Amino acid sequence: MSEEQVTGEIAGANRLLDTIIGHLKAGDDSVVVDELALLHYGEIASLLEALSPELRQRLWDLIPAQIEGEVLSHLHEKAQASILFKMDDEEVVAAATVMEVNALAQVIDNLSEDLTETVLQSLDEDHRQRLEASMAFTEGTAGRIMNSDVISVRADVTLAVVLRYLRRFPALPPHTDNLMVTDEAGLYLGSVAIADAITGQPDVRVSEVMHSDADWVTVDASEQKIAQMFERRDLISLAVVDEGGMLLGRITVEDAIQIIRSQADHALLASAGLKEEEDLFAPVVPSALRRGLWLGINLVTVFMAAWVIGRFEEVLDKIVVLAVLMPVVSSMGGIAGSQTLTLTIRGMTLGQVSKTNLRWLTNKEVLVGLLNGVVWSLVVGIVTFAWFQQMGIALIIAAAMVLNLFVAALSGVLIPVVLERFGIDPALSGAVVLTTVTDIVGFLSFLGLATWFLI
Cα separation of 102 and 114, whole Å? Predict the structure, then answer.
């Protein structure tokens, strides 16, 4: 999709949102219902997430009951929870009965124990068993997100038998590009493309056209690994097996897109100390509480930088111009470090950073930092001399900038690696740590050199 197409899609979504909000405020419920009838479940969910709590509830009340489950499954966690909180128990149960197992497993996490039990009792035996099996797996793993609606065939049957078998289904599960091949006991052997099954000679056996090297993952595979496989291998579906190789289900490209979107949201919001399920239109008090923690942590780091500045009160009193130039050094270091930090975290997320190439990456980023430090220190030094006509200060700020950009580049690589080894999410806390380091090193190097040479 071109940039113009993307821009057009966004503009269209904005116009739709403005239209819906206008009709809701005007009380034109019938018009809104007609608009909803033209939209996909995901588009309706996106509209709900873009509304204030009052209008969100108004729109939800206009959504047909038969599609409530589908819409719920497309909502982010916090927005989903805000809807569920105001739904009647009977309404929740009705929505749950039409939801897919992996989507229902996410909704169950937002329900009370009593309501969860009510929902489970309302499901038919097969649906309940599949849901309980899904919830037995750890959240964020293949077992939790897989679909059990997988069509499997035996390797020793002919394609004619396969076609007769497929005709028994009223419709194939979405994104069925392959048929999974198993033995009599259910052991996964590979897959056969549905196109090959349809166009192949009827008397050919599945074993002759199947791909025994087809991709698969175990139930404990992480979402990150799954997303990487879909991205790198252009998959539409992926088999999921247990530790013994028995076929349990599959993951589709739709599931992979949701994982990739969630990871992108996490990386963007975590850089600001927020969680990926943050609801843009959540009430004021909960939003303030969620964000307050990181503001407090940032305040501690600011006081640490202020304490460093306070150690050089004497030199600041004598040479006031230093106070004017201090932000230059720390800001340049912060920007340079953030660039390296972002690239490193992205590389770690994509599995591109390991012990074997970490040293090379560190050396490369340090050299980049030193090169930029030398170039921009000359620029800053020349500007400082032209501004204040003091060669000593110009040389000192140039030296401090080289030092800070060197430390920023080194920290940008090492901080996320160290945080991950301690089990801390680098995307969530890396920026705070990096800012602290570049501020302290920037102030310490600039004011320290000024004290050493000018006092």
Answer: 20
